[in-house]
Amino acid sequence: MKNNWRQKLHLEPEKGWLNDPNGLSFFNGEYHVYFQYCPDSAYGKGGKCWGHWAGKDLTHWRFDGALLRPDFPDDRSGVYSGCGFVKDELLHLFYTGNVKEEGDHDYITSGRGANVITVTTPDGVTMSEKRTLLRNSDYPDYCSCHVRDPKVWEEDGRYKMILGARTLEDKGCVLFYESDDLDSWRFERAESIPDFGYMWECPDIIMLDGHRFLSLSPQGVPREEYCFQNVYSAGYLKYLDGGLGGYEEWDCGFDFYAPQSFTAPDGRVLLIGWMGIGDIPYTNPTAELGWQHCLTIPRELTLRPDGGILQRPMRELDGMEGAPVSLNDGEKLETELPFRFTSLSQAERSRLGIEGILEMTYECGVFTLRFTDEKAGGGRDVRKAKLGSFTGIEIIADTSSLEIFLNGGEKVMSTRFYPAGTAVTLTAEGIAGSICPLEGMEVLSDG
Length: 447
Ligand code: FRU
Hints:
Blueprint (H helix, E strand, L loop, with lengths): L15 E12 L2 E9 L10 E7 L4 E9 L10 E9 L2 E11 L11 E10 L9 E4 L8 E13 L2 E10 L4 E8 L6 E6 L7 E10 L2 E9 L15 E6 L2 E7 L7 E7 L5 E6 L11 H4 L1 E2 L6 E5 L5 E5 L11 E3 L4 E5 L2 E5 L5 E6 L3 E6 L2 E6 L2 H4 L4 E5 L6 E6 L2 E6 L4 E6 L6 E7 L3 E5 L4 E3 L3
Parallel strand pairs: 1-19, 4-34
Antiparallel strand pairs: 1-2, 2-3, 3-4, 5-6, 6-7, 7-8, 9-10, 10-11, 11-12, 13-14, 14-15, 15-16, 17-18, 18-20, 20-21, 22-33, 23-32, 24-29, 24-33, 25-26, 25-32, 26-27, 27-28, 29-30, 30-31
Beta-D-fructofuranose (FRU) binds next to strand 1, strand 5, strand 9, strand 13 and strand 17.
């Protein structure tokens, strides 16, 4: 059967464009996933809005359309990224109102307003009036006009906000603000590390078992063989005794950016990313059909024994599995999408292929994802991840994406792919595993 590339396990708009996840929260008995949304352009043209999905269990969703639109003087050029914070039976949303002034501007050092705006909602859908909390004049003098993407949390009885920024010297950094009432915010301090890009987008503070991490999406870090392989990167820095250090990318694949974390009611720290990146040199053929991009599956974060972060696909997928079939070493098997492939491999060398589309190889400490068909990859070519050893792989394959979790989630590689049919043929050499069909999620639309 012909594949229409509509995802079954990933949130994506029916039409238009999606980028960053925003306002992730559990509130009023429901998960809330807002996102950067252009309802009328699959190419991201027009003012950004916040779209919204809500649901009780991460697998059944309702789509409510665009709930925050650029209809306020301080957000007139776009309702940019931000967060959700639950307090006093209300969900408080904080976002960046982007304003582009008319005239001869570079929009870096002049011509751009970057306002922190808040609204509250009693149900995730009905929004209060917008109120501006911070403007360019409230940011340190050394900042350019690029200051955005507020994330708010509570710590030691105070409210904290982190913002991503670009300085006038083209250095990426984060700004910390503090408040007693979520209304009036005082600048606390900035943090950065040397030689690490010109802009840090979508910052987030993540706590795991008392260990603190700064998640960020840096732009302008030069490409390396195993890191920064994409135009923009997304990863985390660890707070170590001597300061910030030890950057690791969240994902070494082709399509991952601007993730945001939140805590589920059972205490799990979940991360959702945009399965896409801005300004990429490859394409997504769904755009011609009227929509582009999806979010990743929520990932459960836990502390790795060596102080890094392990990522596992949400356990809710376990309840969506059908009966497994084995894929033995040297065999090939045709499988309907979506499915999960798992293998506890100990091989020195192995190769897993999706026939006529791509291959995944492990050899000499390097895991390589390589497209063998240019069309199915939309121009994606090769991405590599360095592994000490290869102890396991779990692939969540949806209709047009793969999320590949290596060594129990030590490294992850995500990519979109565009098979012609709804089934693919897996081939295995030096590796064996099992394939489980996965049921799709339910997403009800707003009509
Ligand atoms: C990241 C980003 C954010 C910004 C938003 C605009 O992808 O550039 O920094 O708020 O997208 O859509």
